[in-house]
Amino acid sequence: MKDLILPFFAMVCCMCSCSNEQVEEVSRINSVRLDSLAINPEEDIEANDILHKVCEQTQLSTQFDILVDFRCIPLEDLVDSCMATIIVKDKSATKHFDTITVTSNFYYLTQVSFNCDSMLSYTNIYNADRLEMDNYLGDVIIADFNFDNKDDVAVVNAMSNSGAFYSYFIQSPDNKFVFNAYLTDSMSYFPKIIKSKKELVTYVIAGACCYVEYHYRYLPRTKEWKEVSYQRHCGC
Question: In the chain, is it the N or the C terminus that has fewer CB atoms within a 10 Å radius of its CB?
Answer without folding.
Answer: C
